[in-house]
Amino acid sequence: MWRYADGKLALDRAGDWISTELAERRNLVMYNSVGDNDYNTVKTIICAYQMIKPGEYAKSHRHTPNALRLMLDGGAGVYTVVNGVKLPMIAGDVLLTPNWCWHSHYNEGKENGYWIDFLDVPLVHLLEPMFFEQDHGKPQPVTEEPLKHDFWFPYASTQQELARAKPDAQGVRSITLSTPVFKTIELRFHHLAAGKATRKRRTTASSVFACTAGEGTVRAGNERLEFARGDVIAMPAWTPFAIEARNDAVLFECTDEILLRNIDLLREEDLA
Question: Is 1.10.10.10 the CATH number for 155-270?
Answer without folding.
Answer: no
